[in-house]
Amino acid sequence: MALVSNLPKSKVELHIHLDGAVRPSTIYELAQKKGIDLGVKSADELKQLIYIAVDSPVCLTRFLQKFAIFTPVLIGDQEAVERISYELCEDSARDNIVYSEVRLCPHLLSDTSEGRASKEGMATPREVVVQALRGFERGEKDFNVKMRLILTCMRHKPGRNIIKWSQEILDLCIEFKGQGVVGIDLAGDENMTEVDPTHVQHIAVFQEAAKLGIKRTVHAGENGTSANVLEAMDDMLCDRLGHGYHALDCKDVFGRIVQTQMHLEMCPISSIITGSVTADFEEHALQSMVANKASFSVSTDDPVITGSTLTDEYNFIISKYGLTPQDIMTANLHAAKAAFLPEAEKAALYANLCEEYGMKL
Ligand SMILES: [Zn+2]
């Protein structure tokens, strides 16, 4: 991939999953310590086992299965959650990310659907949130980066009471508002929605979040249709869309996105790898966004699987799809405007980027 020299230095990232951003070396070390057999003989082998190349896309289900390889090492481990959060601060700062909103489904790392530890000593969902925030607090100081948490609800999870999870997640968003948690999210395979009996209840959770002043983002139009995008906007009252590519399939939906400046968190490499969009569709989506002055940003989503940094993502869309460094700066300014920070902090972030880039939106 050709490297572009005049990329913006300071960056904002709005869509990255904590468990999708772990270091293979940390997972391998923890597995060794705990006597968990990952079926590999080194951290590098583990890295290769998790990695999916952008030119060999899979499907979202297979992509999500990669998490099953390494999350058992993290589940219920408070110290590990603090450590991976801290390490993400270091990794983000190394790529000159100045502000990042990191997603986390606390129940997935606590292995409980009941809001309390399933085994003695295992972290509860609340403790997972506390530890993630603790890791960020330590990392922010050491690496001069600002990190905030978005708590993720899951669309489906066989055998788990996920609507209970979502209600507990909303409670955690309220409890930790102003202390590092800035919003709520919904993730998972959109194509399972029709067989998901909790679907309507999730809409209710998001409407309640809106009433309580919790910012909302929804994975929609990733591997699902433009109807899902409409539902996220009209029923779930989202402030931003995770991915949102398939809004492009319907002229009216895309028109509304442009007109209302609904922000799309685009994750170019990950969306190709998950088979949510083809490389050609990705090109069409990004170029349409730029041509129509839509509000979008660029993120890595799950860098442990894609193997990409945010700088890699920028290089990819510039060299492959003809976007310019100017488009990337615009995307970062849009990200600053769409951040879930309090207005004054958002304005300061925006002003700093404007100064560095020598531009305004
Ligand atoms: Zn995502």
UniProtKB/TrEMBL annotation:
Protein name listed in UniProt: Adenosine deaminase
Domain Adenosine deaminase: residue ranges: 11-353
Compartments reported by the entry: Cell membrane
EC number, as in UniProt: 3.5.4.4
GO annotation, biological process: adenosine catabolic process; hypoxanthine salvage; inosine biosynthetic process; negative regulation of adenosine receptor signaling pathway; purine ribonucleoside monophosphate biosynthetic process
Pfam families cross-referenced by the UniProt entry: A_deaminase
One MF term in the entry's GO annotations: adenosine deaminase activity
Example of a GO cellular component annotation carried by this entry: external side of plasma membrane
Signal peptide annotation: none
Lineage: superkingdom: Eukaryota
Membrane topology designation: Peripheral membrane protein
Keywords: Hydrolase, Metal-binding, Zinc
